[in-house]
Amino acid sequence: MLEQLDTNKKLSPKQYDEQIGKVQVRLRALGFELFKxxxxxxxxxxxxxxxxxxxxxxxxxxxxxxxxxxxxxxxAPKGEERTHHYLWRFWRNVPRAGHxxxxxxxxxxxxxxxxxxxxxxxDEWRRxxxxxxxxxxxxxxxxVVICKFWLHITKEEQLRRFKSREVDPFRSYKLTxxxxxxxxxxKEYNEAVEDMLQHTSTPYAPWTxxxxxxxxxxxxxxxxxxxxxxxxxxx
Length: 235
Description:
By secondary structure, the protein is an alpha/beta fold. It has 9 helices and 5 strands, in the order αβαβαβααβαααβα. About 50% of the residues lie in helices and about 15% in strands.
């Protein structure tokens, strides 16, 4: 699936400036409508390291009323989180009615990093496909609009971004030894992503794969997808 993507899709800076503002204004108007109709929204962001998740999330939030959304980031579970079922910490942050929740990394770590790095056994990560689908079905039955994004870049583009970060004093903190270790397991992660997309894209919680080699194109596609999903729910 991922190998068949057209990673050359792009917008020029002029096209980006013309389009991003329009979809952000639409999303802001929908934010107030969500509050009035008490519709919750969950946006899940996954993707390769340096794929641009943070930049995409920023464009989603840029024009929204700060009282109407939250952004949660997830790393490896620590402390109390490790003593519970892996979904426990995500249940705590599901969106309430009329609110938009954004997750930077998510419960899909179970079938991605935990699978590849051996933090859970094969029975556990295979069982997680069903558990995750049931978890999202519970949310959908409550009325949650679920948007899930996989930001996809090529291996060559990731290397270019890594090297760019490495020499940039303002962004070098983003590049860690873990990023390089993950890159060395590109084949294993790619297989895990393919399985994830196949087993957990459902009618009520579909995956949107975003061609993210061009950040301008990716950001517009993300915001537009959220707008379309909300409009489908409330109109």
